[in-house]
Amino acid sequence: MKQFILLMALTLTPFLYGQSTDDRGYIVKVGDAAPDFSIKLTDGKTVKLSDLKGKVVMLQFTASWCSVCRHEMPFIERDIWKKHKANPDFALVAVDRDEPLATVLKFAKSIPITYPIGLDPHANIFALYATRDAGITRNVIVDKTGKIVMLTRLYNEEEFKTMTEKIDSLLK
């Protein structure tokens, strides 16, 4: 009986909070409007997602302690950022969760990456997209109208290729 109650509690918890999750920890889904937020970048500038409407936006949720993130980020740098950074219709923002500025700067330098990275010290931005206990790395692709068009989780070569193709097609 205790097991049944525990199972029911775990099953119903997302509904009690008005959120449902997919099998990868997301609380948003493809077709949803991307939740708006403001984030302070490591260079001191602040970016608001809604100010990027009209652009294709890639959000990359990351942290220095994430080994998969460290593996994926050079591919993002090479295959996405270097290819599209000069395109005025594209924006990429890494969202580093739970870490102070000094750690994030050291992390970005160690990879190395040159794309913008912002601070999400309490994972509040992360929690707009996924459950707080969900893992990273994950990427969210937002089209020019502000709708989510792709969600990724972890690094999978095929999924990464699909994501780069999706970004390319949205920028044509």
Automatic annotation (TrEMBL):
Keywords of the record: Cytochrome c-type biogenesis, Disulfide bond, Redox-active center
GO biological process, one term: cytochrome complex assembly
GO cellular component, one term: cell envelope
Pfam families: Redoxin
PROSITE patterns named in the record: THIOREDOXIN_2
InterPro entries: Redoxin, Thioredoxin-like_sf, Thioredoxin_domain, Thioredoxin_ResA/DsbE_sf
Segments forming domain Thioredoxin: 28-172
Gene Ontology MF, one: oxidoreductase activity
Domain of life, per lineage: Bacteria
Compartments reported by the entry: Cell envelope
PANTHER family xrefs: THIOL:DISULFIDE INTERCHANGE PROTEIN DSBE
Name of the protein in question: Redoxin domain protein
